[in-house]
Amino acid sequence: MLVFTDLDGTLLDQNYSWEPAAKVIENLKTAGVPLIFCSSKTRAEIEHYREAMGIKDPFISENGACTFIPDGYFDFEFPFTKESGGYKLIEAGKPYGEVLDKINEIKGVPGMGGITCFSDMTDEQLSTDARLPLKLARLAKEREYTEVFKYSGDANLLKKEAESRGLSVVFGGRYWNAGCGGDKGAATKTLIQLFSKKNGPVRSMGIGDSTSDLPMLMAVNTPVLMMRRDGTHEKADIAGLQRTHLWGPEGWSRKVLSMLVKELVTNSRRDEEVL
């Protein structure tokens, strides 16, 4: 079993805490179930949470722009783009500088609303705006493939101008995210294929709450759409989709624990049939 999860509003609450999910995370590690972060967050941000939670599995950064696989994690050869910081990287997104250049072009389009990028803010400004601790605000600005920004104008105009420049833009609930290449669904499928090569057929669960998570949810066997903080759910039409009725790490914990119990019961029955 594999668990792919978004972070903000899913495993993390409004204060960026995962404490209500801590016990279930330990249960996953004990059961040997990989927990794969699949987020719009940067490599640096995700590493912060992986270290804090003791997670050593691969992860997907910046909305699928890059997949990071720890050195030696798979005992076979597979295609990758480059090696960096103890990982093999599978890059799908173009470099951050190219994306930022395109956004700066869009800023000058007549009638375009105000665009304020993370790169336009100081660490202190971003910390205040995003309600992030200063350390995490710095990590959020260490972008490699995508830019995150606030936008106050016509969404259709923004999407039109972005598309004409080869950019994809998606709204994540608080900020817009722009990138050129890659999405969470394609990155999820790549990791499922690698785990299948390592372990044989695998089952997968995906958990997210926003538009950018839908490609990930479409790529897994068990898609779970988290309730948002305001009690609503993102619009989605995905086969077999489950919805939680709790927000954040509480809802996450209940759904993952339910899956884990079901998995253990199923395996136990299989063992009995073999005997």
Could you describe the 3D structure shown?
With 275 residues, the protein is α/β, with parallel strands linked by helices. The protein folds into 2 domains: 2-92 and 183-274, Rossmann fold (3-Layer(aba) Sandwich); 96-179, Putative mannosyl-3-phosphoglycerate phosphatase, domain 2 (Threonyl-tRNA Synthetase, Chain A, domain 2, 2-Layer Sandwich). The chain is 39% helix and 20% strand. It is built from 9 helices and 13 strands. It has helices at residues 22-31, 43-53, 96-107, 123-130, 134-140, 155-164, 184-199, 214-219, 248-274, and strands at 2-5, 35-37, 59-61, 66-70, 82-84, 87-91, 115-117, 147-151, 168-171, 176-179, 204-208, 222-227, 242-247. It has a 5-stranded parallel beta sheet with strand order 2-1-11-12-13. A 4-stranded antiparallel beta sheet has the order 3-4-6-5, with helices on one face. A 4-stranded antiparallel beta sheet has the order 7-8-10-9, with helices on one face. α1 (22-31) packs parallel to α9 (248-274) and α4 packs across α5 (134-140). The protein is globular, with a radius of gyration of 19 Å. The mean pLDDT is 93.
